[in-house]
Write a structure and sequence with these properties.
The complex is a heterotetramer of chains A (about 300), B (about 325), C (about 325) and D (about 525).
Chain B (H helix, E strand, L loop, with lengths): L1 H29 L6 H10 L1 H15 L7 H15 L4 H24 L5 H19 L5 E2 L5 H8 L1 E2 L2 E2 H19 L1 H11 L1 H6 L4 H27 L1 E2 L7 H11 L12 H20 L4 H25 L1
Antiparallel strand pairs in B: 1-4, 2-3
Helix pairs in contact in B: 1-13, 1-14, 3-8, 3-11, 3-12, 3-13, 4-5, 4-6, 4-11, 5-6, 5-7, 5-11, 7-11, 8-9, 9-11, 12-13
Chain C lengths: L18 H16 L6 H26 L7 H15 L4 H25 L4 H19 L5 E2 L3 H8 L1 E2 L2 E2 H19 L1 H11 L1 H6 L4 H27 L1 E2 L8 H11 L11 H20 L4 H18 L6
Antiparallel strand pairs in C: 1-4, 2-3
Helix pairs in contact in C: 1-12, 1-13, 2-7, 2-10, 2-11, 2-12, 3-4, 3-5, 3-10, 4-5, 4-10, 6-10, 7-8, 8-10, 11-12, 12-13
Chain D lengths: L8 E10 L2 E11 L4 E6 L5 H8 L7 E6 L2 E2 L5 H7 L1 E4 L11 H6 L5 E2 L2 E2 L1 H14 L15 H14 L4 E5 L7 H16 L3 E5 L3 H7 L2 E6 L2 E7 L5 H9 L25 E10 L3 E9 L3 E6 L5 H8 L7 E6 L2 E2 L5 H7 L1 E4 L3 H5 L6 H6 L7 E2 L2 E2 L1 H15 L15 H13 L5 E5 L7 H16 L3 E5 L3 H7 L2 E6 L2 E7 L5 H10 L1 H8 L1
The site of one magnesium ion (MG) has 4 residues of chain D, from helix 9.
């Protein structure tokens, strides 16, 4: 209908809170900026709500974008939005989290990490570091988020094989450092020196837990080993200081990959329905080498 | 006297319409896709759930109360409906609405019989309802099976070219308007919102009215939750965070007195649409960083409130 | 003249004003018996530590509510202070704190201007301002976490005075000062007079507008202090998450403590008890490892019950 | 049907206390069919409380109430209404945002399936209003009416029930004479139709004009019930106050009526050509130390506005105010108080008391800055002051710490007066200082005003009781349409001339109202 010189890329982000999300947003924005000549870029922020994200996608469709990058709020709840995009013949690329729908039909491809695997790898690392014997405190992510659910599942799968590894407390801390510090202080009051390990669903919470451990006079890294996920800069620094044991990467920098995939798609190439990132594992052996490039 | 009052009323609603209209004109020049039927329908459809919730909020505020539990009740209603969807749409819809209506009754009893302050009561029933929604779902979203076609229709269906949620909103607003301005119950709602003690002495039963009003708000929240679940194809325990504040904002932008006793429902609808249009425009613009969006929204809201209250004060 | 002082016998235990206090006592004792390691000095200090920022904010909120207002911007104020101080700490602690508190002052001034000068409704005004200032805090910090290392400043949140955490000492000093202010100073009496009947207070020569201005400034500055403490404790500035929902915690503490929304009364000790009550509940649930989602439900029910105990009597 | 000897309503041994403080100690009360029964007593005697117990607005602690020989206990006013007992309460209780018709029919709206029939409601309301001779549109919003009209609406509502028992608690305190006589006609007609009426008022002429019997309450106990025709005024006052006849002097007011010579005293106040919106357009007052100047005028003539403007409560748009020769610029009441002006407002509830605060705090509110050192209020000085003034004005309260809203209306008024007396003031502005106050207290207050004037204070007094103005003030200034149109003193200062001056503009006024 209207004359188009440039293609429009619409990106529906779920929220922009915390270093990880911001790194993700920035990476996609940067790639879009590099292609300013060929693509217009629009971004929406769902403020952590599926209903708003649905509305955002509808708005993008109304705006007649040519492609949608979608970082879904969670697995359920966006299928109708994907259907609407399909009806409008707009290809969708899912980023970092999956959404219910048929690949190839509702969306072109899913690009992201394997959250279950991330949890599993932390579990295995902790098992090794503690010789299969630990009393673990688990700090979980935002209640109800699929990431939290998967990372909890993977971790449990891993430690199930070690009868002496027990989760003695599991509490939510909302992916936030402040909340984690608070919750951990309370758990320390309840469990005291029984605690020998902490598993946090992201680095922010691990850093909060480390603060709490320190102010309770316990030595993170020695009395209590801590493992988490994300691989952000502050976490790698903590690994170098010896306070954090391990951080499994969950790379937020999707920009290059998703734009490249999209261009391949428009070029008519066949795109695999799942593109799983290879997440690295940072511990004391390699943290120094990567700390500079971390976000 | 009566004439100036109704003129005041008209002007307050018109003040909001004025803002709405100028914003729409601005948008239609700036975004070529704004005035497309699709976009306009989107705005209506996306905001129908909030509109339902805001309707309940308006009635509660008119009665001199406030209901902070609406957001949590939307979530609860949605997950209950989704969990029951296997038993068929009818059970799901009724179950979802019944659960929140029950909590609305609890709100009503605590506010009327126990004479507790509505702000506090509903603040804590909100957190209880949210906790309940999270607990019964084990914090997961519950998918609505496609077999529950009635539920899905409620959220996504059409009658003719009109989306079902929009139709529900229209019906509810007309019915509520009629109840408020034509029925005894409506008059009593206004009366206790204006002066509860006087109404009591004159023979109104404030407890009964309050109970009904909070129950109504609970019921509407549940309905909004059910519609939302149908629309998203899932019931989510974390849905509708902060809707209570949006609903309050819409009500007040519509010129309803927060202290109660004065106001109407259709201006609230205009308020909801204004809020929704704000989001829509931010999306159509698409390049404003999220934090600046907050600044714009907060600032704009402040201006509307300022404008609105100036008009009210002048009259 | 029959002058009878209210007696201080056993009957006082049933005095509704002591409902929250009784609930606090019962919960503490019950936890001491049933929750291992609960009634230890270190855990009690830990609870005091965790409640101190809420306490600071709630004291400010008590002033505002006593003057028949409400201040929802406190959480955003904390966030604003948090980023400013974290960004500026490299220029020295004094500079950073001064600028940060000026930020808080600005929030208070704007609230005061809108509510007391322009006579806007406090709830809706501060609701809009809450969004605005959260946005501004994020714009200032570009949405990012701002880590820093400054041991002297961090002592504010982590240091001890003897065996007592510094922030607990700060909260204690503020409580005593606020109690004294309300009880014995001219300004304190003016606040409750304005909250009780603004027009009457004005006709008795009280400059009500100025009183309300100051009240919002006090609230903002105390929220600012809380933001400083929180930032020092975290060792970073966080515009997105610092102070989220702080306003509701504070309001809950105030109201559970028996200061009514209708203004005209300021129960500082009640607020302290209210804040402690909520902290004891959260801590004990954490220690008993009750799942978060269920704890939301139980906590609400307990608090509603505590409020129920102090409901107004019928004549 | 009841026989004339039977009683409609019989209360025996009614007791009621508020948070431990008894208000009624066991009161008996009896109402015959078709009688108008006056209920009188000093402020705080328990009249309003007894009435609220009759209608179920309060619950009694003990005692029996028989209605039509059946023992009843109404849980709320709705039930009492349904049974035929209707009241107009002392504090006008209406829903301001709603229309006159809606207020009249609230709780029993003509309806079909819950849907209000507005047409029927409005016509019926119009009928009722017309019968009371009121020119009020039933569709107008109550909040837009003045106090007198609101009071009449409340009365219209009560009458429209066709109740068996009608209770009127000080209905006339804000009515003009014409309205009062309309009300009395209605009461007489209702009486002839068999309705029983309980009537509370502090104005004796009214009691003798319409009432058959009187029950006197004192300190929550009933003293006597007698037929008014066998009781003269002096006896009645004695019963109320609990004193011997010789202790109670005669005269309508406590003012001596003799103007002291103040001409040699220095000028205190010169207010010239005050202007404020449309309400004031040229009011001038000049007075000397020690003078009492009365302000007379019809409702809405701008008396209240004048004193409010002198107090800085309304922003002046023109004119000058000089106090002791120096020009004042009054931005707000604070400025006026600093200059030595005090003001007692006419609406006690809205502009006077701070309901949740104690008598002590209300009494010392304006004086607080004087009791403060380094920002800290001296509790000791506060207590001394409060005790002194509670004794001096005979304020009845359980203690100085009792909340003021729990006091009876008259005692609240005394506290508010004390608020200004405990401060050093030069000019006292009194808007209806004796409204709703019992004879005893009224005389005390009038005496006090006279005393204060003798001490050199200037007093501007607004009163709807012309006697009070005639006997109390040296000069009377008559206002009409926001202008001072006459100044009467000496011989001219008599009831007839004042009423004449007030009324001259009456036709004009009515036209303006429409
Ligand atoms: N709600 C209440 N709470 C506490 N005390 C009350 C309350 N209402 C009335 N009282 C007390 O009961 C007593 C009787 O008051 P009431 O209002 O019945 O007096 P009244 O005879 O109507 O006086 P007035 O002529 O001034 O209206 C007073 O001492 C008053 O302080
Ligand atoms: N022109 C008007 N328009 C609206 N309301 C009016 C007008 N004039 C008077 N009133 C109302 O009537 C009330 C009495 O008017 P005002 O105070 O000017 O007269 P007043 O002479 O003091 O009478 P009062 O005997 O009631 O004290 C006012 O409080 C005001 O609300
Ligand atoms: Mg009375
Ligand atoms: Mg007047």
């Amino acid at each position: 209908v209207r004359e188009k010189t440039k293609k429009i890329v619409g990106f529906s982000q779920t929220e922009n809170i915390g270093p990880w999300r911001i790194a993700e947003t920035n990476s996609i924005k940067e790639e879009a900026a590099k292609r300013k000549k060929t693509y217009d870029f629009l971004m929406t922020d769902a403020q952590g709500q599926t209903s708003k994200q649905f509305a955002d996608i509808e708005d993008l469709i109304a705006r007649q974008v040519d492609v949608i990058f979608l970082a879904p709020r969670e697995y359920e709840g966006l299928t109708p939005a994907l259907e609407a995009a399909r009806a409008a013949k707009i290809p969708v690329f899912l980023i970092d989290r999956e959404a219910a729908g048929r690949p190839g039909q509702h969306f072109v491809s899913f690009l992201g990490s394997d959250f279950i695997a991330q949890g599993r790898r932390v579990g295995e690392w902790l098992a090794q570091a503690s010789d299969g014997k630990a009393s673990i405190v688990e700090l979980t992510g935002t209640a109800g988020s699929s990431v939290a659910i998967d990372r909890a599942k993977g971790f449990r799968d891993a430690i199930a094989r070690y009868p002496n590894m027990k989760i003695v407390a599991t509490q939510t801390a909302d992916f936030s450092r402040a909340a984690a510090q608070r919750v951990m202080e309370n758990i320390i009051q309840a469990k005291g020196s029984d605690i020998t390990a902490v598993y946090a669903h992201n680095d922010e919470m691990a850093l909060g837990a480390i603060q709490a451990l320190k102010s309770a006079g316990m030595k993170p890294g020695k009395d209590v080993i801590v493992g988490s996920i994300d691989g952000q800069k502050a976490a790698l620094e903590a690994i170098i200081r010896g306070e954090l044991g391990v951080s499994v990467e969950s790379n937020p920098r999707f920009g290059k990959l998703v734009f490249a995939t999209m261009e391949e798609y428009f070029a008519g190439k066949k795109i695999p329905t799942r593109i799983i990132l290879k997440d690295r594992l940072f511990d004391v052996t390699n943290a120094k080498d990567f700390v500079d490039e971390a976000y | 006297m009566a004439a100036t009052k109704s003129l005041a009323k008209f002007l307050t609603s018109q003040g909001l319409l004025l803002i709405l209209f100028s914003l729409a004109v601005f948008a239609s020049f700036r975004y070529e896709t704004f005035l497309t039927p699709l976009n306009l329908m989107n705005i209506m459809r996306q905001n129908s759930m909030l509109a339902i919730v805001a309707l309940g909020m308006t009635v509660v505020i008119l009665s001199g109360g406030i209901d902070l539990s609406v957001g949590a009740l939307v979530a609860l209603g949605g997950v209950v409906a989704a969990m029951l969807a296997g038993q068929g749409s009818f059970v799901a819809i009724v179950g979802g609405i019944a659960s929140t209506t029950l909590l609305g009754v609890v709100n009503g009893l605590l506010v009327s019989r126990a004479r507790l302050q509505p702000f506090v009561v509903t603040l804590f029933t909100a957190s209880a309802a949210r906790g309940l929604a999270l607990s019964i779902t084990e914090e997961r979203s519950i998918a609505v099976p496609s077999a529950a076609s009635g539920l899905v229709w409620l959220g996504r269906g059409f009658i003719g070219f009109i989306p079902v949620p929009v139709l529900i909103v229209a019906l509810l607003y007309f019915a509520t308007w009629f109840m408020l301005h034509r029925s005894r119950l409506g008059l009593h709602t206004f009366a206790i919102g204006n002066n509860e003690e006087a109404s009591r002495l004159m023979g109104v039963n404030p407890n009964r009215v309050k109970l009904l009003v909070y129950t109504f708000s609970g019921l509407l929240s549940g309905l909004a939750g059910v519609v939302l679940a149908g629309r998203l194809g899932a019931g989510q325990p974390v849905a509708a965070f902060g809707w209570e504040t949006d609903a309050i904002a819409a009500t007040v932008m519509g010129g309803t007195f927060l202290a109660g006793g004065q106001g109407s429902v259709f201006p609230t609808l205009a308020g909801v649409i204004l809020l929704g249009m704000m989001y829509n425009l931010l999306n159509l613009e698409g390049t404003i960083t999220p934090w600046w969006q907050l600044v714009l929204r907060g600032g704009f809201l402040l201006l509307v409130v300022l404008f609105q209250q100036r008009i009210v004060q002048r009259n | 003249m029959k002058s009878k002082k209210p007696d201080l016998g056993w009957g006082t235990l049933w005095n509704p004003n002591f409902g929250a206090f009784a609930a606090l006592l019962i919960l503490y004792v019950a936890n001491a018996v049933f929750t291992p390691r609960f009634a230890t000095v270190s855990n009690t200090l830990n609870m005091l530590l965790q409640v101190s920022t809420t306490m600071l904010v709630a004291i400010g909120m008590t002033f505002v509510i006593a003057s028949r207002g409400i201040d929802l911007t406190v959480g955003s104020t904390m966030a604003l202070v948090s980023v400013i101080v974290a960004l500026l700490i490299k220029y020295g602690m004094t500079v950073a704190i001064l600028f940060a508190l000026s930020g808080a002052l600005l929030v208070g001034l704007l609230n005061g201007f809108l509510i007391s000068r322009l006579k806007l409704d406090a709830l809706i005004t501060t609701l809009a301002a809450l969004i605005l200032w959260r946005g501004i805090a994020q714009v200032v910090g570009d949405g990012k976490l701002v880590p820093f290392a400054h041991p002297t400043f961090e002592a504010l949140g982590k240091g001890y005075l003897g065996s007592i955490p510094i922030q607990v000492v700060i909260a204690g000093v503020v409580i005593v000062a606020a109690f004294f202010c309300i009880r014995s100073t001219l300004f304190g009496r003016h606040i409750v007079a304005v909250g009780g009947n603004e027009e009457a207070a004005r006709l008795a020569g009280i400059r009500a507008e100025r009183v309300k201005y100051i009240v919002y400034i006090i609230s903002a500055l105390l929220a600012g202090f809380a933001g400083l403490v929180e930032t020092a404790r975290l060792g970073m500035g966080d515009p997105s998450k610092v102070g989220v929902n702080a306003e509701f915690d504070a309001i809950a503490a105030v109201v559970v403590g028996g200061t009514p929304f209708s203004g005209g009364r300021a129960n500082i000790l009640g607020t302290v008890v209210g804040a402690l009550l909520m902290q004891v509940i959260s801590t004990s649930f954490n220690m008993l490892l009750i799942p978060f989602t269920w704890s939301l439900v139980f906590k609400s029910v307990i608090i509603l019950f505590a409020i129920f105990l102090q409901r107004p009597k019928e004549i | 049907m009841n026989q004339a000897t039977q009683t409609v309503l019989c209360m025996t041994g009614i007791k009621k206390s508020f948070s431990g403080v008894p208000a009624l100690w066991g009161v008996d009360f009896e109402l015959s069919p078709g009688e108008i029964h006056a209920l009188v007593g000093e402020n705080g005697a328990g009249k309003s409380t007894l009435i609220k117990i009759m209608t179920g607005a309060y619950r009694r602690d003990s005692g029996v109430m028989e209605y039509d020989q059946n023992s009843v206990a109404f849980p709320n006013p709705t039930e009492a209404q349904a049974a035929g007992i209707v009241a107009v309460y002392q504090e006008i209780q209406l829903v301001d945002f709603r229309t006159v018709a809606e207020n009249i029919f609230l709780g029993r709206e003509p309806h079909r399936f819950g849907i209000i029939d507005r047409r029927v409601m409005n016509t019926r309301a119009a009928d009722i209003l017309e019968r009371l001779g009121l020119q009020i549109d039933p569709r107008s919003v109550v909040g837009s009416l003045n106090i007198a009209h609101r009071q009449m609406v409340a009365i219209a509502r009560a009458i429209s029930f066709g109740a068996r028992v009608l209770i009127l608690d000080e209905p006339t305190s804000s009515l003009t004479e014409t309205e009062v006589s309309v009300l009395f006609n209605v009461m007489r007609r209702l009486k002839s139709e068999g309705t029983s009426i309980v009537y509370v008022s502090h104005r004796f002429e009214e009691l003798y004009a319409v009432c058959d019997r009187v029950t006197v309450l004192r300190d929550g106990r009933n003293i006597v019930t007698r037929s008014l025709s066998t009781l003269n005024r002096l006896e009645l006052v004695c019963y109320m106050l609990g004193r011997q006849p010789e202790e109670v002097s005669k005269g309508v007011t406590a003012f001596t009526g003799q103007s002291q010579n103040t001409l040699d005293r220095p000028v205190l106040l010169q207010a010239e050509a005050l202007k404020y919106k449309k309400r004031l357009n040229g009011v001038s007052i000049e007075m000397r130390h020690g003078e009492i100047v009365g302000l007379a005028g019809l409702l809405g003539s701008g008396r209240s506005e004048t004193v409010r403007a002198l107090f800085g409560a309304e922003p002046l748009e023109g004119g000058t105010v000089k106090l002791e020769g120096s020009l004042l610029s009054l931005r707000d009441p604070h400025d006026a108080i600093d200059a030595g002006i005090a003001f007692l407002s006419e609406d006690r509830k809205a502009d006077g008391i701070i309901p949740e605060l104690s008598v002590r705090e209300n009494l010392t509110l304006a004086a607080l800055p004087n009791l403060t050192q380094w920002g800290i209020v001296s509790r000791k000085q506060q207590n001394e002051l409060v005790e002194r003034f509670m004794r001096r004005l005979g304020i009845k309260a359980a203690s100085a710490e009792q909340k003021i809203h729990e006091l009876s209306g008259g005692n609240q008024q005394k506290v508010l007066l004390a608020r200004w007396l405990c401060k050093n003031t030069k000019l006292l502005l009194l808007d209806e200082p004796t409204r709703g106050i019992d004879v005893g207290a009224k005389r005390e207050i009038q005496q006090l005003i006279a005393e204060l004037a003798e001490q050199g204070l200037g007093v501007v007094m607004i009163s709807s009781e012309v006697e009070e103005l005639v006997e109390g003030s040296q000069r009377v200034i008559v206002l009409r349409d926001g202008q001072s149109i006459a100044e009467l003193s000496g011989e001219q200062k008599n009831i007839k001339t004042i009423l004449h001056a007030m009324a001259e503009g009456a036709n004009h006024q009515e036209a303006a109202d429409k």
